Amino acid sequence: MTNLEIVRSTYEGKTSEENGKNLAEHVAENITWTEARGFPYAGTYIGLESITRNVFSRLGSEWIDYKFTPEDYVASENKVVAYGTYTGTYKASGRYFEARVAHVWKLKDGKIISFEQFVDSQTVNNAMK
Q1: CB under 8 Å to 87, separation ≥6 — which residues?
Q2: What average pLDDT does range 104-117 have in this prediction?
């Protein structure tokens, strides 16, 4: 698989579970995952277990239909940028949001070594109030 195909497989599976399985298959053991400053789950997490606990588990339990819909991708030798829109409804407030977002993935030898999120966090934070 190309780096672009690897990243696309983490977004474009038939289910969220398939996307997660594809991610797990392609991450480096010491992957670094950075959620943007100002985002509710901001921080840098190392390793899939830490990412799952601090990001994915919370997104799955605190939101209804939280998802990223990719609009397009830009790929270079060892980087792939995916950009599009986050959407979802925060369970506690019942508020829906949409936010523009870009994800920067770095890969080495067919493994994802880092992820960094860039997002309009204000719309997400407003939904949580």
Answers
A1: 65, 66, 67, 69, 96, 97, 98, 99
A2: 98
> Which pTM does this prediction carry?
0.94
User: What separation in angstroms does the CA of 52 have from each of 24, 71, 109, 115, 129?
Assistant: 10, 24, 23, 13, 24
CA distances from 80 to 17, 21, 62, 72, 115 (A): 22, 19, 28, 10, 10
CB atoms within 10 A of CB 25: 13
Q: Cα–Cα distance between 77 and 93 in angstroms, integer?
A: 42
**Amino acid, single-letter form, for residue 15:** T
Convert the pLDDT of each residue in 57-101 to its tens digit. Answer: 999 999 999 999 999 999 999 999 999 999 999 999 999 999 999
Which tokens hold the place of 104? 């920067």
Residue-wise pLDDT tens digits, 20-67: 999 999 999 999 999 999 999 999 999 999 999 999 999 999 999 999
Which residue has 């993935």 as its token pair?
105
Closest CA to 35 of 26, 24, 46, 20: 46
Q: Give the SS3 label for residue 72.
A: strand
